[in-house]
């Protein structure tokens, strides 16, 4: 890496990409501007990064000249995933939420100084989309080398499943190692050339951690996190129930705590699980802090006063795993 990283953080959300940059420990690196259209996410971002220039507006309002004036050499982004999900009806480029990403594809070729590096995160399924095809075509025309992954935190030794698509791109004749220099392949494992940037990869030498390392002190958990009787009686059989020594948990979505099935694990704090006496079980939701811990946000991350539990879950569910992105960023720029 010749020059300090100057990052444009697009679709910045609550700052997961920014924290991944900080986790890398790069000298003189900075986020020159963060952009997100969500008022709630922007409040959280500015609360945690008050010194970063943040724009609460759509990317469609920016020109190539605007981007050139920012002086960034790296783009980190997580575009809206709904156009590529079943719940979002998989409308792909026809979804209005894809417009800003399509606009970005027009901006990159028009820039006088395109970035040296691009790191993008999205949902599994993006790799089969028309948007993916168009974006890779733009990157190829601009001379980027591209590597793609489908990875989950579980592969990095973190007891949480969150399978996501990642695209890494280098500009100006910068090549990736031969091990991953295979055009069109999406890697679903951690190659050796990436492992050297990871402290813990869920291997025999570095086993996956247990959930208890990510939990708050039991004495600090209020009764509001206990599962209501109605939920226990109706949905216990379809819930993913884990305990503190478990080495896995399911993906926490933006609907966690609202819908019972398929939105994230619940924690059994009792000694056993009694399916014959449902109400005797001591089950609770993971707190927003615990979800943030599993997504590897640092201890200093916080929400501004006034945010509800539902809002916190929603914003975290739309975010990313900081540690996974940090490892990929190191691999990209080194």
TrEMBL record:
UniProt xrefs under InterPro entries: C5-MTase (IPR050750), C5_MeTfrase (IPR001525), C5_meth_CS (IPR031303), SAM-dependent_MTases_sf (IPR029063)
Active site: 81
GO terms of biological process kind: methylation
Transmembrane segments: none
Entry-linked SUPFAM superfamilies: S-adenosyl-L-methionine-dependent methyltransferases
Coiled coil: none
E.C. code: 2.1.1.204
CC terms in the record's Gene Ontology section: nucleus
Domain of life, per lineage: Eukaryota
Enzyme class: transferase
Keyword S-adenosyl-L-methionine assigned: yes
Gene Ontology MF terms in the entry: methyltransferase activity
Pfam families for this protein: DNA_methylase (PF00145)
Keywords: Methyltransferase, S-adenosyl-L-methionine, Transferase
Family per similarity comment: Belongs to the class I-like SAM-binding methyltransferase superfamily. C5-methyltransferase family.
Designated name of the protein: tRNA (cytosine(38)-C(5))-methyltransferase
Source organism of this protein record: Ciona savignyi (Pacific transparent sea squirt)
């Amino acid at each position: 890496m010749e020059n300090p990283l100057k990052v444009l953080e697009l679709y910045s959300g609550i700052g997961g990409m920014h924290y991944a940059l900080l986790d890398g420990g790069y000298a003189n690196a900075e986020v020159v501007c963060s952009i997100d259209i969500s008022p709630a996410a922007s409040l959280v971002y500015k609360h945690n990064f008050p010194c970063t220039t943040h724009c609460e507006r759509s990317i469609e309002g920016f020109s190539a000249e605007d981007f050139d004036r920012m002086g960034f050499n790296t783009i980190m982004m997580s575009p809206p995933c709904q156009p590529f999900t079943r719940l979002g009806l998989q409308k792909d480029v026809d979804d209005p939420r894809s417009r800003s990403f399509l606009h970005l594809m027009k901006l990159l070729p028009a820039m006088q100084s395109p970035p040296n590096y691009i790191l993008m995160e999205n949902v599994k399924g993006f790799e089969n989309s028309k948007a993916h095809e168009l974006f890779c075509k733009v990157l190829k025309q601009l001379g980027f080398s591209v590597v793609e992954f489908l990875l989950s935190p579980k592969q990095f030794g973190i007891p949480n499943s969150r399978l996501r698509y990642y695209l890494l791109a280098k500009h100006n004749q910068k090549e990736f190692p031969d091990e991953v220099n295979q055009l069109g392949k999406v890697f679903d494992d951690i190659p050796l050339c990436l492992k050297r940037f990871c402290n813990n990869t869920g291997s025999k030498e570095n086993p996956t951690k247990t959930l208890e390392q990510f939990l708050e002190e039991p004495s600090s958990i209020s009764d509001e996190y206990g599962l209501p009787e109605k939920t226990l009686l109706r949905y216990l059989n379809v819930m993913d129930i884990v305990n503190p020594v478990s080495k896995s948990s399911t993906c926490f979505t933006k609907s966690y705590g609202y819908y019972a099935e398929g939105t994230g694990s619940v924690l059994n704090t009792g000694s056993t699980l009694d399916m014959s006496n449902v109400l005797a079980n001591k089950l609770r939701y993971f707190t927003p802090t615990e979800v943030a811990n599993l997504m590897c946000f640092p201890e200093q991350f916080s929400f501004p006063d006034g945010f509800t539990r539902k809002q916190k879950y929603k914003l975290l569910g739309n975010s990313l795993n900081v540690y996974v992105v940090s490892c990929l960023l190191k691999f990209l720029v080194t």
